[in-house]
Automatic annotation (TrEMBL), chain A:
<protein>
    <submittedName>
        <fullName>Proline reductase</fullName>
    </submittedName>
</protein>
<dbReference type="InterPro" id="IPR015417">
    <property type="entry name" value="Gly_reductase_pB_sua/b"/>
</dbReference>
<dbReference type="GO" id="GO:0050485">
    <property type="term" value="F:oxidoreductase activity, acting on X-H and Y-H to form an X-Y bond, with a disulfide as acceptor"/>
</dbReference>
<dbReference type="Pfam" id="PF09338">
    <property type="entry name" value="Gly_reductase"/>
</dbReference>
UniProtKB/TrEMBL annotation, chain B:
<dbReference type="GO" id="GO:0050485">
    <property type="term" value="F:oxidoreductase activity, acting on X-H and Y-H to form an X-Y bond, with a disulfide as acceptor"/>
</dbReference>
<dbReference type="InterPro" id="IPR015417">
    <property type="entry name" value="Gly_reductase_pB_sua/b"/>
</dbReference>
<dbReference type="InterPro" id="IPR031000">
    <property type="entry name" value="D_pro_red_PrdD"/>
</dbReference>
<protein>
    <submittedName>
        <fullName>Proline reductase cluster protein PrdD</fullName>
    </submittedName>
</protein>
<dbReference type="Pfam" id="PF09338">
    <property type="entry name" value="Gly_reductase"/>
</dbReference>
């Protein structure tokens, strides 16, 4: 499994990405940059690239990370591991991922409570309709609002 | 007192709106909103990619005229070009009102997609008005590639289709580089900003990197381009850091 037509992000999507628009326009946060990380085939490689991503975030002294994935199925292994690697380093994490009714996480951990389901289809499935289950502005606003809450809570708990 | 910020760099994206797209003797685009499309270079593109590509066809799809067959949609691509500076800074020209859709199938009818495919009636297979899809009033240039048998499932096949499509788009980019900036219909200015003292946030985009039509390219010469790009697979799928302006200037080409 991998990317389905209804979740895939086209080149045009990256050019006009609502997630970047929402985060960069919020003057309450200091957007440091965007990490692009691939989705390898091999399980050992999946763990490796996610861990390297978390090390980057830690070294940059990130308070919070919003992670998005334009695929579902086995790419959830990468996604959930990266969330865990970030979480265990004390970095707040929220994210955007397709779940619907067919794609609940194939693996879970304690750092997935801030993940927004980007499903838009009526029955919660991969519809093979291009654009249908894409991330939209409202999803991104939710993910950022949740991240701000989490970052504040983590600061208070320290 | 306003918060102190540090401005790292500026990117200006100037958009030129296209109001009509028609067949013509040559590919052409002008600041008065007129675009012509020709099939004259298709034979040459097929010849260049003859190991992988059997045939290429182009269609001009008018706004709303979506009751028609489409092969699976491999990508939707904005037509943009650098005019000054490199991706992420300087000036970019882009067009609104028309987008390119790359579709692919092989000679025996196998659709070029890895995990679910979107072939069928276009009006049922595409949700309009998303960030990554055309709007109600947009033209679509359909760049439909027929790959050699089985080549839709091997990594070089889809890559060749993207490369041919990119070369087609480049003919418009070369003309857009000479557009007078003041004739633009929209002007957007973006800054990479440091906000000292604010919560430090990183965006992580997990992208395709498993092979064939499940690949992502970065660092092409042109925005949302192919030439000069590097595959995330070839970079070991390792995390790559880009600036907000690089990202919004089209540093990613989605190769799924």
């Amino acid at each position: 499994m991998g990317i389905g037509p209804s979740t895939k992000e086209t080149s045009l999507h990256h050019f006009r990405d609502p997630l970047l628009d929402v985060v960069s326009q919020d003057t309450d946060v200091d957007l440091m940059g965007i990490v692009i990380v691939g989705t390898p085939d091999d399980n050992v490689d999946k763990m490796l690239v996610g861990t390297r991503t978390a090390v980057w975030a830690e070294a940059m002294r990130a308070d919070g990370v919003i992670i998005s994935s334009d695929g579902w199925g086995n790419s959830d292994v990468d996604f959930t591991n990266t969330c865990e690697q970030l979480g265990t380093r004390g970095i707040a994490v929220t994210g955007l991922n397709f779940s619907g009714t067919v794609a609940q996480f194939v693996v879970t951990n304690n750092y997935l409570d801030g993940i927004i389901d980007i499903n838009k289809s009526a029955d919660g499935t991969e519809t093979n309709v291009v654009g249908e289950n894409n991330v939209v502005e409202l999803d991104c606003k939710k993910a950022l609002a949740l991240l701000k809450l989490k970052m504040r809570k983590m600061e208070q708990d320290r | 007192m306003a918060d102190q910020v540090k401005d790292l760099r500026r990117l200006v994206i100037k958009a030129f709106h296209m109001t009509d797209v028609e067949w013509g003797d040559h590919n052409d685009i002008t600041t008065d909103g007129h675009m012509t499309v020709s099939k004259e270079m298709l034979d040459q593109l097929v010849e260049q990619e003859k190991d992988y590509i059997e045939k290429i066809d182009i269609q001009i799809i008018k706004p709303g005229d979506h009751d028609r067959w489409t092969n699976t949609i491999m990508d939707i691509i904005p037509i943009s070009t650098k005019v000054l500076g490199k991706i992420g800074e300087g000036i970019t020209h882009t067009v609104t009102g028309v987008y390119v859709i790359l579709t692919g199938v092989d000679t025996v009818g196998k659709q070029c997609h890895e995990f679910g495919s979107s072939e069928g009636n276009l009006k049922e297979q595409l949700v309009l008005n998303r960030a990554g899809t055309p709007g109600d009033d947009d033209y679509i240039i359909s760049f439909d590639v027929t790959l050699k048998e089985g080549m839709g499932q091997e990594r070089p096949g889809p890559t060749a289709a993207h490369r041919a499509c990119d070369e087609f788009i480049q003919t418009y980019r070369d003309k857009m580089k000479k557009f007078k900036g003041e004739k633009c219909t929209e002007r957007h200015e973006y800054h990479d900003i440091v906000r000292p003292g604010k919560k430090r946030v990183l965006i992580v985009k997990q992208v395709a990197g498993q092979g064939a039509m499940y690949d992502t390219h970065l660092f092409a010469k042109e925005p949302s381009g192919v030439e000069g790009g590097r595959s995330i697979i070839d970079m070991g799928n390792m995390p790559i850091l880009v600036t907000p302006n690089e990202y919004r200037d089209g540093i990613i080409r989605s190769m799924q």
